[in-house]
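Subject: Interface between my chains keeps coming out wrong

I've been trying for a while to get a sensible model of this assembly. When I model each chain on its own everything looks fine, but I need the whole thing in one frame so I can look at the contacts. Pasting all components below, labels as-is. Any help appreciated, I'm running out of ideas.
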Amino acid sequence: MAGTPELLRGTLDMMILTVLDRHGAEHGYGIMRHIRETSQGVLIVEEGSLYPALHRLEKRGCLSHEWRRSESNRRARYYSLTPKGRKRLREQVTDWNVVAEAVNHVLRPQPAPRPAT
Amino acid sequence: MSATAAGHPEAPTPCDPSPEIDDEIAFHLEQRAGDFIAAGHPPDAAMAMAREAFGDVEAVRRACIRIQNGGITLIRHIHTVVTTVLAIAVIALAVGMYTQYHRARVQTEVALAAQHNLLAQLDEERRAERQAADATVYVSGPGIARPGVYHLPASGTLTVRRLLIAGGGVEQAEAGVVEVRRTNGDVIELRLDDVAQDVDLQPGDVVEVR
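Reply #2:
Try treating it as a single job with all components included. I did that and got this:
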């Protein structure tokens, strides 16, 4: 894959929910860093999209937040997954797997049809 | 962008999300600048690089505020709808109560008018009965065969002469002198042998034949 593509549209929410499910409470910058490191620098979260997505997920009840001291002793807003967010993540992963499998079927080379005898 | 680490209250008011959003973005920029510094960039350039990497800070800030205020706007909408529905219900109730009151008042007035008319009719009948009872004369005297109370006719008049000859049974009318005493004290005398003398009787008259 050439370059560092941005996250596919619609997958940012799934990435955020996955990071919080695996790593527990995290602030926005930490979420962005986890996505970049886990994808080995392939997936780059657009910072301008990250915070509206976090606030939107929180408004929908998928996330909650609390203010804590970060590693640098700076006050930071930490997000956590709610039961609703965990359920939403399961649904999104299922949908993603269905779509990915279908795309792979399309991309896979098809055997040539046998000539009629 | 006015966010700074210092100066924000520990617990910003939930109605105004902007201080928290400013603080959150400021934290992000500081972390990003820290990474640039760790990567060997000069500290004075690191923050500018962090801002450039972030993009349009003000647009992101406005988007987050809009999302946070969406809930408040929804609550306001619900509040407005509920208030409007309650106001309509109260007005409808008031109109209904007034209509019931007005209808009951009209019905009461009609009933009172009917009662008033009935009472007036009863009064009229009683007055007529009383007048009928009062329209009597008393006839007495030695020349009268049937002394006693005589009723005056409801319509027309009755004279002394007609009463005495037709109903009183006067035996010696030719020689009689009749005295009519009125309720107002007047006394009228007339002679029966003078056919020209007669008088209309009035209720309460006392007729005495001598």
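Reply #3:
Confirming on my end. Residues 33 and 47 of chain B are 5 Å apart (CA to CA).
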